Structures are given as structure tokens and as C-alpha cells.
Amino acid sequence: MTLPVLVRTREELAAALAERPVATGAGHGRGVVMTMGALHSGHLSLVTRARELADQVLVTIFVNPLQFGADEDLDTYPRDLERDLALLAGVGADIVFAPTLDVVFPDGEPVVRVSAGSLGEVLEGVTRPGHLDGALTIVLKLMHLTRPDVSVFGQKDAQQVMAVQRMVRDLDVPVSIVAAPTVRDDDGLALSSRNAYLSPTERERALVLFRALAAGKRVALDGEDGDAVRAAARAVLAGVGPDVELDYLALIDPRTAVEVPADHHGPVVLAVAARIGATRLIDNVPLRLGERAGVSA
User: Fold this and answer.
1) 65-75 per-position pLDDT tens digit
2) What does the pLDDT read at residue 293?
3) Which of 51, 72, 95, 283 sits CB 3.0–4.6 Å from 68 for a disulfide?
4) Short-list 21, 18, 54, 23, CA closest to 176
5) Rounded to an integer, what distance in angstroms lies between the CA atom of residue 15 and that of residue 157?
């Protein structure tokens, strides 16, 4: 098993890319997966997907302070670069760019930043104001530095995927954005680096998020409307104890992150966020309304 080439500075990154030029055209080029480290099987699935789409796969590892709020877990966010490199070797990553803070922001925190606009004012944007602005700013910066042809993101961060897709359209960034399916444990819990914070009891209670999404999905597959989908998911969440604090449950348009009306037909995302003890988790499932058992209504 060969470890990927590790680069830490802009100069090392530029040299690694120059030494490993890539062809262009369908099925070729460079695929980039952006992470904050503490990798798990969900991250590795993104790298595997990037390998299917591109000749060369580059993974970035950077804990981005711009997307953490004042009371969030920036200082305690798990970091283990040596372990991450070993995991990435197993899925064929070619280059890992793991810059330090001063490499990414040589002049200090950026004065000019990307705004998520209306996409950053709902759901995650309400609970974590500025979070999507910070995420988009680092995504755009890393795109400039790594020059991907395709970049793969996880569907679990659905609102972030929406914002990145809109950013590359609105700002004419020449990269294709691919959303890869959420990876789950056998019991349905969506994989997340923050799952490590959960006690065994909290982890069991966190499964209510998946059960709520599954209930909504069943109703959608039966051809019911958006209100019925929301009601089914809320019924599951209604029985949770005080140590599960619901932030939101929303049935949203996958382009705007705005709640859809009951009579909406077409693709939607059923999204949920809650605090389990001291840990905040998000999850979602893409659905289609106005269809029954996969057949158009």
C-alpha cells in the first residue's frame, strides 16, 4: 500500500501538480475531495467516487475556522493526519494537501469572503450564522489552489452541496460538482466525525433522526403529499426525550433550501438537525413527491 504524496505548502502543491499532469476530457482530469480530516468510511466513499470520475485524485485536509461559530468545537475537532493518510492510501488517493492555517490565510483571516446569499439564511444558516459563507470561502480558495475538473461532496451536508453548486454556477467556476450518497452504519446512523463525541446511550438516541427520515420516505413512496411526509417524520420525533433537542425538520427544494408546499411535485430533500446531548447532528434524505412506488403520478 503506497501512501499518497503529502504536501503542506502552496509551493509543494504546485510542484506536485506540475510533476503529475492530467489529461482532459470525459473520464479524465483531476478529482478533488475536500475534508476536515478525522476521516471515516463516508469520506472514503467520496474518494472512491472521485477515482471513478477522474484519473488523479487529490484530497484536501484542513479544519476551516471560518465555518465554526464562537461556541463550536474548533479547538476540539478531531485531528489525526497519520491515520488519515493510511486510510486514503487504501482508496487510491494520489495527493493529499494538508496546509496549516498560515498557508491557507497568509495575510490573516480574509477580508473578502463568499456569501451564500439566501441559501445561507435558512436552516443551517439560522442556527449557525455565517457557517455557509465560511465553507464557500474555503471551498473556492481550495478550488483555485487545486484546480479540479470535478469535486465530490457528501449528500449528508445537503445545504452545503446546494450552496457549492450555486456558487460554481453563479461565479462561473469551471468545475463539475458531484453529490455522493450518504454513508450509514448498519443501524442507519449517518457517518460523521462528530459521532465520536456521542456516548453509547446518546448514539442509540441519535437513531431517531434516521427513523424519522425513513418514515417520511415511506410516505413519499406511497405517493402522499409534502404535508403527509412532514407529519410522518414529526410523529417519530415527537416521542424523543429532553436530551434530544430538535433544531429543525424541513422538506425543502434542492435548489433553494426553501420549504416546499404540500402540492409540490418533483425532487425534494427531507432534512433534520438536532442536538443529542452536547453534540449537534444533521441528516437528510433526497425524495421525489408526486410519485408512487417510483412511478410518475
Assistant:
1) 999 988 788 98
2) 54
3) 72
4) 54
5) 32
State the pLDDT at residue 73: 87
Beta carbons of 181 and 269 less than 8 angstroms apart: no
Q: How far is CA 262 from CA 151, 160, 223, 233, 273, in A?
A: 34, 24, 12, 14, 21
Closest of 200, 269, 199 to residue 233, by C-alpha = 269
- Its pTM stands at 0.93
CA separation for the pair 78, 245 (Å, rounded): 24
Stretches where the chain sits below pLDDT 70 are 25-27, 293-297
List residues bridging with 184 in a β-sheet. 190
Strand order from edge to edge, sheet including 279-289: 244-252, 266-276, 279-289
Q: Are strands 176-180 and 279-289 parallel, antiparallel or unpaired?
A: unpaired
- Give the whole-angstrom CA distance, residue 271 versus residue 268: 9
Backbone angles phi, psi at 17, to 5 degrees: -70, -35
Distance of CA 9 to the CA centre of its chain: 25
Please name each of the domains of the chain with its CATH number. 5-180 (3.40.50.620), 193-288 (3.30.1300.10)
Q: 116, 106, 108, 107: which is closest to 139 by C-alpha?
A: 116
Q: Mention every residue, 6+ apart, whose C-beta is less than 8 A from residue 64.
A: 36, 134, 135, 138
Can 131 be counted among the known catalytic residues? no
Residues with Cβ < 8 Å from 71, sequence gap 6 or more? none
Task: Please tell me which residue in 28, 43, 144, 264 is annotated as part of the active site.
Answer: 43
